[in-house]
Amino acid sequence: LLPQLQESEITATIGKLASYANRYYKNNVGARASNELADSWRALAAGRSDVTVSQFAHSFVQKSVILEIRGTVAPNEIVVIGGHLDSITPQAMFSPTGKAPGADDDASGIATLQEVMRVLLQTGYQPERTIQFIGYAGEEAGLLGSKAIAKAYATQGRNVVGALQLDMTAYQGSSSDITLISDYTSTAQDDFVAALAAGYLPELSVVRDVCGYACSDHASWTANGYRASFPFEAAFGEDNPHIHTTKDKLVKFDNSAAHAIKFARLALAYA
Ligand code: BES
Ligand code: ZN
Question: Dihedral, CA atoms, 154, 157, 163, 167, nearest 10 degrees?
Answer without folding.
Answer: -30
